[in-house]
Design a protein that fits this description.
CATH superfamily of the largest domain: P-loop containing nucleotide triphosphate hydrolases
Helix content: 25-40%
Number of helices: 10
CATH architecture of the largest domain: 3-Layer(aba) Sandwich
Largest sheet: 5 strands, parallel
CATH topology of the largest domain: Rossmann fold
Shape: globular
Oligomer: single chain
Structural class: alpha/beta
Number of domains: 2
Length: about 280
């Protein structure tokens, strides 16, 4: 029996994540008080012939009932139910903007004087569970479609022998990827942005790819990058890490980082489950 506890910041995309999980066969329950978790898990364990994968959303909407989550999870584990925690993160400004756009009420708003204060209260409430999460996804710069792809990459495959690897390109001008485990800065290499013919193309275009890769320093970097990640991946797997996020950043996230992320993903895809996300490729 596979239990996924879905939690995180309100407005960070938990509903989208649950929809994706439901589409790939998870039995999903939203907004469950933590005290009900052991009883519900026991019922699921008794129905393993019909239910094998369960996703449960437990978050700040349950208010004081959120307290005791880890006591409930410990009781569930004693019953024979193992679990992983999926945490949806997002920065404060993006959350405030989303609430302003959709005009929904933050679940802690009755106890706060402003949306900023409500977000801070929720972040404090979730601090412990965030520190113990198994899967962390930062949706600050992620579209619903990209979030769905990440969820599918994590949970769709039946092959659990290899750790899923998420290769991400990003632009430093749009912010640092909080979920990244390994980050490589490639701003030191020649920038296609300053070539008129390449400026409005991306690293997915052959001409940009060839320009980036036709550089001796880039070729040396690529070989060393492969050696490093090939050395580290088995160590992370032996440690029990459930996913690895490798981010490659350039200034705008459209040219150098995209090309090198594609190169890395192609290399890793020979042996591992790899997902590629070009976070900032369509930004102006």
């Amino acid at each position: 029996m596979e239990f996924i506890i879905v939690t995180g910041m309100s407005g960070a995309g938990k509903s989208c994540a649950v929809n994706a999980l439901e589409d790939i066969g998870f039995y999903c329950v939203d907004n469950m008080p933590s005290k009900l978790l052991p009883k519900f898990a026991d019922l699921c364990l008794q129905s393993q012939e019909r239910i094998s994968r369960v996703a449960i959303v437990i978050d700040a909407r349950s208010g004081h009932l959120f307290e005791g989550l880890f006591d409930a999870l410990g009781e569930m584990k004693q019953q024979g139910g193992s679990y992983k925690i999926l945490f949806l993160e997002c920065d404060d400004q993006a959350l405030a903007r989303r609430y302003k756009e959709n005009r929904r009420k933050h679940p802690l708003m009755e106890s706060a004087e402003s949306i900023a204060e409500a977000i801070k209260m929720e972040r404090d409430m979730l601090k412990t569970v965030r520190s113990r999460t198994d899967y962390l996804i930062d949706t600050t710069f992620t579209s619903p479609a990209q979030l769905r792809e990440q969820i599918l990459a994590l949970f769709l495959s039946k092959d659990e022998e290899r750790m899923p690897i998420h290769c991400m390109s990003f632009g430093y001008k749009y912010g640092f990827p909080a979920e990244a485990d390994l980050v490589f800065d490639v701003r030191c290499f020649p920038n296609p942005f300053y070539i008129d013919e390449l400026k409005h193309k991306t690293g997915l275009d052959k001409k940009v790819h060839d320009y980036v890769m036709d550089n001796e320093a880039v070729q040396v970097f690529t070989r060393k990058l492969y050696d490093m990640v090939d050395f580290l991946i088995p160590l992370y797997e032996n440690e029990g890490k459930t996913q690895l996020v490798i981010a490659i950043g350039c200034t705008g996230g459209k040219h150098r980082s995209v090309t090198l992320t594609e190169e890395l993903a192609a290399h890793l895809g020979k042996e591992s489950r790899v997902m590629v996300n070009h976070r900032d490729i369509h930004k102006l």
